[in-house]
Specification:
It is rod-shaped, with a radius of gyration of 15 Å. By secondary structure, the protein is mainly α. It is 94% helix and 0% strand. Keywords: Plasmid.
Length: 35
């Protein structure tokens, strides 16, 4: 039970990190493109 909770938590963290990093990349590339 606890292991399942941890696995779903890790998956959620992965999704958050992925979306966060992709947003960061978009912002960085957007800034360089605008200059």
């Amino acid at each position: 039970m606890k292991r399942e909770m941890k696995e779903t938590h890790n998956k959620q963290m992965d999704e958050i990190i992925k979306s966060y990093t992709s947003n960061k990349i978009k912002i960085i590339f957007g800034n360089t493109n605008n200059q």
